[in-house]
Amino acid sequence: MKKIDTAYIIDDSHIYVFGLSKIIETYKLCNNLLVFEDGEKAIRHILENIHDDSALPEIILLDINMPVMNGWDFLNEFVKLKESISKDITIYMVSSSIDPEDLERAKSYKEVSEYITKPISISRLKDLLKVA
């Protein structure tokens, strides 16, 4: 298995992000981890680096409920940019929501690989951050 080079966490929960970041660092699951507290900051970063694959992630762990730009708004903007991005980016919608409507809405985006309910176990996180 090859280790992920870059992963993004897009989530406004400082406690969740802290815990997730510590797990990723402890188990050395990726080389570079960037954290954005809302979708707008993440989209801005992607736009600034759209032609630099090394700055773009292989994996995005995306929350739904955030201020400024939520996960759904992020996805809508990402879909518009996707054709300009040459790198394959896997998006996992990670939320504490168990609302069936959120699950169905996530399934409606082909860009979302999977909907995962928080919290993510260490073994599940290890599985997500491995590339064959």
Salient structural properties:
about 130 residues; alpha/beta; Rossmann fold; 6-stranded mixed beta sheet; 5 helices; 6 strands; about 25% strand
Note the topology.
Layout: E1 2-10, H1 14-26, E2 30-36, H2 39-48, E3 59-62, H3 71-81, E4 90-95, H4 100-107, E5 112-117, H5 122-128, E6 130-131
Parallel strand pairs: 1-2, 1-3, 3-4, 4-5
Antiparallel strand pairs: 1-6
Helix pairs in contact: 2-3
Uncertain runs: none
Task: Kindly state the percentage of residues in helix.
Answer: 25-40%
The radius of gyration over CA amounts to 14 Å
Order of helices and strands: EHEHEHEHEHE
In this structure, how is the largest beta sheet organized? 6 strands, mixed
Characterise this structure.
It is a single chain. The protein has 132 residues and is of the alpha/beta class. It has a domain at 34-116: Response regulator (Rossmann fold), CATH 3.40.50. The protein has helices spanning 14-26, 39-48, 71-81, 100-107, 122-128; strands spanning 2-10, 30-36, 59-62, 90-95, 112-117, 130-131. Strands 1, 2, 3, 4, 5 and 6 form a six-stranded mixed sheet that branches. Helix 1 links the parallel strand 1 (2-10) and strand 2 (30-36). The longest helix has 13 residues, at 14-26. The chain is globular. The protein starts with a strand and ends with a strand. The model has no long low-confidence stretch (mean pLDDT 92).
Task: Briefly characterize the structure.
The protein is built from five helices and six strands; from the N terminus they run βαβαβαβαβαβ. It is of the alpha/beta class and 132 residues long.
